[in-house]
Amino acid sequence: MGDEGGGPVVAGVVEGLRVVLEPLGVGHAEEMAGVLGDPGLYSFIGGGPLGVGELRARYARMVAGAPEPGVSWCNWVIRVRDEGRLAGTVQATVGPGAVAEIAWVVGKPWQGRGIATEAARELAGWLREQGVTELVAHVHPDHHASAAVAAAAGLEPTSEVQDGEVRWRRRG
User: Fold this and answer.
1) What is the C-alpha to C-alpha distance for residues 138 and 128, in angstroms, rounded to an integer?
2) Where is pLDDT greater, at 81 or 5?
3) For 79-96, how does the pLDDT look when each residue is reduced to its tens digit (9 = 90+)?
4) What is the pLDDT of residues 103-119, one digit of tens each?
5) Among 10, 28, 117, 135, which lies 20 to 30 A Cα-Cα from 126?
6) Are 75 and 104 in contact (CB under 8 A)?
7) Helices (DSSP H) in the chain: which residue ranges?
8) Structural domains in the chain?
9) Do residues 167 and 136 make contact, with C-beta atoms less than 8 angstroms apart?
């Protein structure tokens, strides 16, 4: 994966119709603090909003990459083309065996507009181009909107539950 020698997968720009996935940078922290500032975003995933400084520190760790050999952390911000603003994030942890665990979060003002769906589909397609053959996501059983995003990205729920979340999977 990544290159012909099986090197790491590195996030690149991913162009969608309405969204552009831009590789995450520490400089995104200020705008993202506002995007992710609604405490209601965390009702299913836990935690709470972080301030700009906390996000800068988190993003610096994420940009530095995974400490585990053979694992790539790929993180993007979602930019809505017609607004020119950031609306959320998508991420993929790509590990051995051409498997990627994916996740997404979209700020409240952008929910219900198909932004997460388009971003997740674009992410899934980009990962396939990188040689990833299996996608995994974990979705709280009561988070129907996130389940719809997973389904739209081609994942199907399994009977596996991890930390109270249903494991969704797409092979191929």
Assistant:
1) 19
2) 81
3) 999 999 999 999 999 998
4) 999 999 999 999 999 99
5) 28
6) no
7) 29-35, 52-64, 115-129, 144-152
8) 14-171 (3.40.630.30)
9) yes
